[in-house]
Design brief:
Layout: H1 2-6, E1 13-16, H2 24-33, E2 37-42, H3 50-57, E3 62-66, H4 73-87, E4 90-95, H5 112-135, E5 137-148, H6 160-180, E6 186-192, H7 204-213, H8 222-233, E7 244-247
Parallel strand pairs: 1-2, 1-4, 2-3, 4-5, 5-6, 6-7
Helix pairs in contact: 2-8, 4-5, 5-6
Family: Belongs to the short-chain dehydrogenases/reductases (SDR) family.
Protein name: SDR family oxidoreductase
Keywords: Oxidoreductase
């Protein structure tokens, strides 16, 4: 009984996309610490991330896949099918797909191709991953999409298009929760605010503005975000679905 409480995801297989980006490493570690074996997608053409060897040394089974190029719906479907073929049916899927561009809607130099890429990755590719993964998911599985609190509150000029992509994922996940609820599968969105891992290399003025905009006046950590994700993946969250978890220090309050 104690082991089950200490390792609530023991015997489960979790698939995490873009595990080497943003909160990906912290999320992979948190899922592994909860007992899950992992399938992860990482950037192609780079050395294998160090956290993978650390997890393997601790006894976690980690199967690594490369993020497809080009990164589009069709290639994402193929990726998820390869994952399912390699590891069997999935228990947890964490969708960490994002591209972020900033232009005001009346900007004469607005890059339409970049905005189309943003929509293709943030919406179409993310939905393709979720839809395909659910088809190969065990009953009582967990789907967790990583989003942004700007889906609720667009507090910065130039983020209208980006916020629209994040809001689209919220709407999709709410609908998907109804579709797969009878199978005991939950579908939730974790919306991130000012998280340290997402602001690496950002100008100090931006970081200060991000902290000032939330109620706690600080940055959140990747580990704090990963803790919320791991909770939603656990048996304790079995009656939580179609829900938005804002991990933003009160930015959306």
């Amino acid at each position: 009984m104690y082991f089950e409480k200490a390792k609530p995801l023991a015997g489960k297989i979790a698939f995490l996309t873009s595990a080497d980006a943003g909160i990906g490493p912290a999320t992979a570690c948190a899922l592994a610490e909860s007992g899950a074996d992992l399938a992860v997608s990482v950037s192609a053409g780079r050395p294998e991330p160090g956290f993978i060897s650390v997890l393997r040394a601790r006894g976690t089974k980690v199967t690594v896949f490369q993020i497809p190029t080009p990164f589009n719906s069709e290639e994402c479907i193929r990726l998820v099918r390869r994952v399912i073929g390699a590891v069997g049916r999935l228990d947890v899927v964490v969708v960490n797909c994002e591209r972020k561009f900033q232009w005001q809607v009346d900007d004469l130099d607005l890059d339409e191709d970049a905005l189309e890429m943003q929509f293709a990755i943030n919406v179409r590719a993310s939905i393709a991953v979720i839809r395909t993964a659910i088809k190969g998911m065990n009953d009582h599985g967990r789907v967790i999409a990583i989003g942004s609190s700007v889906a609720d509150r667009v507090g910065t000029p130039g983020l209208a298009d980006y916020a629209a992509t994040r809001a689209a994922i919220v709407a999709f996940c709410k609908g998907a929760a109804h579709d797969v609820g009878p199978r005991g599968i939950t579908v939730n969105v974790v919306q991130l605010g000012a998280i340290d891992a997402l602001l690496h290399g950002a100008p100090e003025t931006q970081i200060e503005a991000e902290m000032e905009a939330n109620a706690m006046k600080r940055l959140g950590s990747a580990e704090e975000a990963a803790g919320a994700i791991t909770f939603l993946a656990s048996p304790a969250a079995s009656f939580i679905t179609g829900t938005i978890f804002n991990i933003d220090g009160g930015y959306s309050a």
